[in-house]
Design a protein that fits this description.
Structural class: mainly beta
CATH superfamily: Lipoprotein localisation LolA/LolB/LppX
Strand content: over 45%
Strand order of the largest sheet: 7-8-9-10-11-1-2-3-4-5-6-12
Number of domains: 1
Oligomer: single chain
Helix content: under 10%
């Protein structure tokens, strides 16, 4: 998936937008952003901070995988879903709300014909908003398991901090 990502600290600040890439295969995922890569094989998470030349290693089961991609798959039954509208192009506007959740409200635009996410506004408990605009989705890609691991040999100057 190719998407544009931004964080708006408040409603008055537009924030910076950056083009990012994400891959998902079963429980494994990889997200590449300008300053960070987050890689998980489903068991381990590697958070690679590119400018700091360090990677933090943690267990995926610790719940530390709150990434833009994983947000949409971790919402539970405590969220109330409301279908606001479906336009003539088949784009559905859906609101997920939970006043007690980390993500207070999630506004989704979904292409009902392709069953694809087009856009998400994620409202955080601190008042900030994450915006995800999907540019391109690719399906049925088979990626090698190594794609979902961090290879320290390819980054010899990176400090590995193992938090497991």
């Amino acid at each position: 998936m190719v998407f544009n990502f931004s964080i708006n600290p408040n409603d008055n600040d537009l924030g910076e937008t950056e083009k990012s890439h994400a891959w998902l295969q079963g429980e494994a995922y990889k997200i590449e952003m300008a300053e960070q890569q987050t890689i998980s094989d489903g068991k381990t998470i590697w958070s690679y901070l590119i400018e700091d030349e360090e990677v933090i290693v943690s267990n995926a089961s610790e719940g530390s995988d709150n990434t833009p991609l994983k947000v949409l798959t971790t919402l539970d039954e405590s969220y109330v879903a409301t279908l606001s509208s479906i336009n003539s192009q088949g784009i559905a506007s859906i609101e997920l709300a939970n006043p007690n959740g980390q993500y207070k409200r999630v506004m989704l635009k979904v292409n009902t014909k392709k069953h694809e996410l087009n856009h998400a506004d994620i409202f955080m408990e601190d008042g900030s908003k994450i915006i995800i605009d999907v540019e391109e989705m690719k399906y049925d890609q088979t990626l090698d398991d190594k794609f979902f691991t961090f290879d320290a040999k390819k980054h010899p100057n990176v400090d590995v901090i193992d938090m497991r």
